[in-house]
């Protein structure tokens, strides 16, 4: 999915072409095989009805005799394997493109970018440090732990007793080495595999995860976090981030527009304006995931278009959401489109909601993060005055086939305060399909 930074991956979505469907396991064709699975931990058999496993072994599941033991085949050998040592491949299909997705998280460039994102890491570390007295001696689940940085912080700063650090990409092998190098192997258990198919030995007190993608939802990892919450978080447990909010604001993007589209007006003295529609289609068909906007680009106050309580939100609620907006422009200028960003909060432990809590805001009024802002460019800029209004809806629709992708539909009417003239606009933006 990405060949470099997480942001690059969105522009490299071609990497998620149909041809990139994961390789169908040959053994799957044997009709006695229910599905394939991979061992994410070594298993040493205690009797000869059991099959020994090494981390990374692929086994063919023949029958699921019980919740804890499945009859499996590894090469010519058959025997029982413990289900809490293997992760099933069954959800690799279904348009999740897991091969590419998890393969892409096995890059140093991506982890470098995330670990160098100071506001990102500071928010998580501060939340952990400020709640040490509530995390001490507790059990934590880190969903999508990557290098394990949040798990290590939960132990070092939060004094957690035990952390299950779940990571589906091969990078988990590096993570295990890092945990050992930092003397934390007895409290942090790295589990390679998808959290959906993980079998933990106990419920947890705290789930920590950094799951936010472009426009908050891209990658749709939020569904994995919700599933882990429903399956493994204690009733009175806490999930961080505890809340996620998506913001949208009408804005100018003059420099970008001139660079990508205005440029064609006159190219070395020649009229190339006939190419402007092609430029708009190519450059503005999808949102720009790495736009850095300035506060003065905002033409109104931002509005919240999605508010999630991570303790209660369900996957089905997120399939399609629509938010009605009304903006009154607070300055004259040029309306090129809309910018979006998110905020995540780390509340939930506090008894009293009034207690200050830590939050991470990726908007233009806060220190820049690797998410930057997401810019939805409309095709025709309009000159606007203070007092003009925009009235419309933003619909976020998850792709029914490509389950990590979504589409954002913007539909609104623009009313000029002076002429009372009304113009209607609509545009559908795939992220990225
Ligand atoms: N936009 C993000 N913050 N993406 C973080 C994704 C990190 O979580 C890992 N990850 C994503 N989904 C899962 C999952 N279902 N199970 C385990 N690890 C996951 C992924 O391999 C990467 O290390």
TrEMBL record:
The keyword Heme does not apply. The keyword Ligase does not apply. The lineage of its organism: Eukaryota, Metazoa, Echinodermata, Eleutherozoa, Asterozoa. GO terms for molecular function: histone methyltransferase activity; protein-arginine N-methyltransferase activity. Its main location: cytoplasm. It is found in: Cytoplasm; Nucleus. Pfam families: Methyltransf_25, PRMT_C, SH3_1. This is Protein arginine N-methyltransferase 2. Coiled coil: none annotated. It comes from the Eukaryota.
